[in-house]
Amino acid sequence: MYLDQGSNATNDRTVISADLSVSERGRLLLKTGTELGNAEGGGYLNATIRNVFGGAESLYASASTATSTADVGHRARSSYEVTFATPVAANPDTIADIGAFASSRSNHHFASHEEAMKGVRAGLKFLGKYGEHEFGYTGVLRTITNLSANASTSIRADAGNSVKSSITHTITQDSRDNKLLPTTGYLLKNSTEIAGFGGLGGDVAFVKNEADIQRAGSFKHGISFSTGLRAGIMCPLPLGFGENQQPVKPSRINDRFFLGGATDIRGFRESGLGPRDGNDAVGGDVYVAGGASLFLPLPRLGADSPFRFQAFVNGGRLVGMQGIGNKGGDVKQGLVNAVREIGIGYPSIAAGVGLVYAHPVARFELNFALPVVKRAEEKGRKGLQFGVGISFL
């Protein structure tokens, strides 16, 4: 290794001899612990075997469970996963993976049912000219079960089994200096999913697209800001093709968007925005959400501390498509009407202040939020709200 002796140096150089000592990480990694998030608490166990066949492959398995006593009822969830991943053509920037998963979650706190899933998936990740790409296939059996006695007709209509067979593509550009509490840079992310169309199979068919744009910047004295805009649209498609093509059916609760909670639209309960049937949130097919936050360092802690004072405003709309019954309907007109409804009136808005802690693993927020614009059927949350996550609006 050579080191120049300054800008005025000629061709004279100083030779430096350096000895580097490295050691290979262990092949087996076991990790267990507890986790918190959005009024949930639980534990997890992760196991990873590295370099399985000597080509930088990895075998990953995990199990986790969580329970809570939220203010709207008891909920629980569990998940299990096993994944095998390997570089393609010895390129660490191109990774292929295949795996299986199973999970169950109680949604009684907002939609009077539980959902269980069992499935397989395969994916390919690689770096491209315009960002990181991820292609994937998922085949999953979903079950809406354990309905409450007062479950709405919408929940009862979607109860039972459904099979989704879908392909997905996600492209991400992320120049932020810190994903949990950025002070500069931007995020551009777009995800597209196509299910059941053509020869994909399954018993649901739709195309679904979701975009996420975020921008962060900073001022003097450690003050920073972030803004974000998210939008999603889902359009039902005919199932099958040719003579076997079936009429377009309305979307199912398993596949719709949900909006509201401590990590997206603060000041509202989880899934508190959008269409409802009685007391049940049933999700929507089109949504737009946005937010802006200002972060100030706390006195005596300074700009290098992971703690921040936050002032924020956020809002959004979530609507469903109308006019598509079990015998089909005018999908185009239903989509136009849903997009038009998004622009009618003010979005639901909340504002507030709070404390933020950017832990290396996740971001913690304790906010006081106040709904400013709220529709009669929506579930606002005035007062303290705690959130944990890795992606905030």
Folded structure, characterized:
The longest helix has 12 residues, at 331-342. Strand 20 (348-358) and strand 21 (363-373) form a beta hairpin. The chain contains three helices and 22 strands. The protein has a 16-stranded antiparallel beta sheet. A two-stranded antiparallel ribbon has the order 1-2. A two-stranded antiparallel ribbon has the order 14-15. Helix content is 5%, strand content 55%. It has helices at residues 108-111, 153-157, 331-342, and strands at 2-4, 13-15, 28-37, 40-50, 58-70, 73-88, 91-106, 114-128, 131-145, 160-174, 185-195, 206-218, 224-236, 276-277, 280-281, 286-297, 307-319, 324-325, 328-329, 348-358, 363-373, 383-389. The chain has 393 residues and is mostly beta strands.
